[in-house]
Amino acid sequence: MDLFDEITRAHRELLDGDRKVVTLRRSYDADVEDVWDACTSAERLSRWFLPVTGDLKLGGKYQFEGNAGGEILQCEPPRLLKVSWLFGDNPGFSEVEVRLSAEDGGTLFELVHTAEVPPEFWAMGGPGSVGVGWDLGLLGLSLHLSGLPQFDESTFHLTDEGRRVIIESSEAWGRAYEAAGGAPDQVAAAVANITAFYAPEEESS
């Protein structure tokens, strides 16, 4: 699998208002039921995303290991899943919605993340602050659906392919930011910051 090609296959959008809305849309060569199961089964989520605990049904609470948790707000198998997506003790509004639909023998996958973002955090990273993480997560989903081994997140940025993937993702979210009205200097700073965060240069000995 060409991981760079997997990243370029996705379509990204930003609505830049009081609440920030990032949308990531791409296709998978798997049927809707399989993609739905991969996104809602605790056992399968642990194989491509993160271990998850909780009551994985409508109204239940969940927690990803070392990451977000929240409540399952809507669950309409195998088409729609909506959850609150919260970090820390005093999080602001944050929701993630996943929509699946059949497309040419495969699945059209759409993820919409809507959040209230502190201005200083947005100025630092723009949409890439969550977008790059989602890109890498959905790359993991693609590998999982194809029956291929996962990449090692701790060292992925040190490989030539990993750096290329991360840089393309960061720059793609920069283009979405600019298309939504972001000033060129703000966009450039956000892309540089997010690239440095996800793909830091290896320190020389």
TrEMBL record:
Protein name listed in UniProt: Uncharacterized protein YndB with AHSA1/START domain
Gene3D superfamilies from the UniProt entry: 3.30.530.20
Entry similarity comment: Belongs to the AHA1 family.
Species for this entry: Nonomuraea polychroma
Domain Activator of Hsp90 ATPase homologue 1/2-like C-terminal: 29-135
InterPro entries membership: ASHA1/2-like_C, START-like_dom_sf
Domain of life: Bacteria
Taxonomic path: Bacteria, Bacillati, Actinomycetota, Actinomycetes, Streptosporangiales
